[in-house]
Amino acid sequence: MTPSVPQPVSPELPVPGAFSTAEIDVSCRLPLFILFISAAIWAVIASVFGLISSIKFHDPNLLADCAWLTYGRVRPVYLNSMLYGFCVQGGLGVGLWMLARLGATRLSHPGLILIGAALWNLGLTLGIGGILAGESTGIPLLEMPRVAPVLMFVGYLVIGVWAVVTFHHRRQRWLYASQWFFFAALFWFAWVYSTANLLLLIYPVRGITQSIIGWWYAANLQVVWFGLTGLGTILYFVPRLTGRELHSHHLSLLTFWMITLFGCWTGIPYQAPVPSWLPVSSRIATVFLIFPLLSFGLNLRQTMEARASNFFSGLALPFFGAAAAGFFSATILRTGGGLLDETGLLALSWFTPAVEHLQFYAFFAMTVFGGVYVILPQLTGLQFHSPRMVKLHFWLAVIGIALLTISLAVGGIVQASRMRTQSGDFMRVVQGMLMFLRVATIGDLLLAAGHVVFAINVIGLVSRFARAEAVEAIEAATEDLYATGAKS
Amino acid sequence: MNYGPIIFLAAFLALATSWFGMVLKPTEQLGTMQQTNTVPGGALYPLGRPGLARQGAEIYRANGCAYCHSQQVGQEGSLARLVLSDLGTNQAAALRAVSAAAELSESDSRQLGSGLPRDLFTTRDKERADAAAKAINGAGAKATVWVVPIGPDETWGWGKRRSVAEDYLYEAPPMPGVLRVGPDLANVGVRLPDPNWHLRHLYAPNAVVPKSPMPPYRFLFEKRRLKGQRSPEALAVPVETGYEVIPTADARALVAYVLSLRQDEPLFDAPFTAPEPAPASTNAPGTTATNATTSATATNGPAAATAANPPAKQ
Questions:
Q1: Do A70 and B64 touch (CB under 8 A)?
Q2: Whose CA is closest to B45, among B193, B255, B262, B273?
Q3: Is the minimum CB–CB distance between B223 and chain A shorter than 8 Å?
Q4: Which of A323, B20, B208, B295 is the most buried (most CB within 10 A)?
Q5: Are strands B243-247 and B221-225 parallel, antiparallel or unpaired?
Q6: Per residue in B98-140, pLDDT tens?
Q7: What ipTM describes this predicted complex?
Q8: Which of A363, A371, A236 is nearest to A315 (CA)?
């Protein structure tokens, strides 16, 4: 870049020929309503299943006579509906809005994006039903049986193509960092999802190669897709909400390159039964994740003038602060676990779900919540009925995820060390975990309550908007009647 | 200047490296894998599952057993265990060689003649054990180096060696697992070979393993009213009077699958020395009483054997 060019450090620079924000928001309205409402509903569904799976540790006899609700089906249903129903869907909605706003252009073909969202949700519903009915493929995070991922992939492509077209038609030619982040993520998910489904479900490869591809996919979804989309969202919304400039464009690009370079190589557990170069390269890549952590942390710290209290203003900003904290803790635990786990026991303990929850919930889901809380008032021109409900959701989510992840991470470390030092009766190790799982259930409960509050907030605002629109439309349609009525 | 396409291309390449490294290369390296041979032994490995066990894998997959049970054994390293089995004809020379190689004290080496085979030492240094074995064998005696994998999983008794890619050749899909809520099942067919134990455990885990948090899989069983004689298939579990519990075909298939889980063959990639069957009779001097103790040490694990004979420092 030549020195004469200013760094694009502000999300919204004036540009000739730009569409007004009102025009952009009108174009985004319908698809984003659908994406956000479905995401909120999926979050509630996910937490119901999450709670069931969590409570089964307290009483294994709970719902045990129903094959559909056995732990091994409920657990993947929870993770799939949370990841694909809430995280990916909500992230797409937030990302589309960022692309339109940053490009100062209208969203292309909102009607087709709506169809894409419908296909995604249809596929997901079929897939979740398939898992419950016992049709799971048995590959973690790719459990949904064959027809579901095809529908979801087509839906994703439809959304993705019009996102790319929107990006292409941007009026603002300077690219803000978030556009890189989201654009790369958009493209990469299509690649990893199609590769994984083709090689695992449609033309399955042999033996343990299936697991390798499954691990590669899961890491790319969680580290790369969530990492790029979530960090891009934070880098966009934090300067926007605080009215500051992003500290450094170049640092954010460093974050981008480090995630694309190293994030995609993570994921193979250290003791996996595969040729050893695979877990070794994964381990090295995991350690290198410290670089995006440092560059992003520094950037955010300078932008916020090193004050965490600056995050506590407004309704949405705290969500982004919590998301940044979630990203830091997820990456530190992931890197630390990768470095210190000599035996592979930690990777097979409750530590792994803790890191995953930090990544997809404490980090990513929080950015989506924050994004929705910024975007919906813009789209509707209305404020949330009760700001307290938003704050309530924030505290439920933060305390819930903290309880869940801290108890599971500590429990995982305890489990791994007991498995290393003790021997004899394994049931004692299992029993020792139950206390941590009970604390985690309280976390699950708070998260579920948070999702209900979130759904009430989202659906409440959209329905208030729809009612106002409907009243207006009816008034407009019946205007003649009144006029003629008055005349006669 | 518009850097967009260049940036896009660079990001594309960065991400694509992982596709080449983690999808294409493993597919090339492992996707064409064939059956291998056990070492030693030379038998084909792995063998396909029988039909019922293959149906059982579907039940295992459908009910998500892999969310609580892994099927992969780790290993931290191996110990080399030097076992002396025969002193040969020139006992004096052999004894000298053995005590030199194993650094035995005077009193220890005097007892060597009785109680064969016996452990000389156990070490992490395989080369040292090999050199000692070579020296001893050169003197006309017979010593072999045993490879004993060690690690927490081996200590828990979950496997004799680490799992390797070959073990999963016929798994579709392989289910190495994500989390150990319960014990590892890679070798459960070796560890718990009784199908009735598994059936009772599936029906009521608590009744078989006290305080187990495993959910019961009662939907794999049929509880029906007793009609006359108790069915020979009925499960020996506590049930209300007038009823009996019959495993469904699914339960039987699942148990057949679980019993087929075994990774207990030594392979080139994952060597270990299986204890040979105890010799029925040896031509070594000694009474029948010493023979009995001999076979006891031979079949015991390394811990028991080394407890009797303190090994040299590792």
A1: yes
A2: B262
A3: no
A4: A323
A5: antiparallel
A6: 888 877 776 777 777 677 788 888 888 888 899 999 988 888 8
A7: 0.92
A8: A371
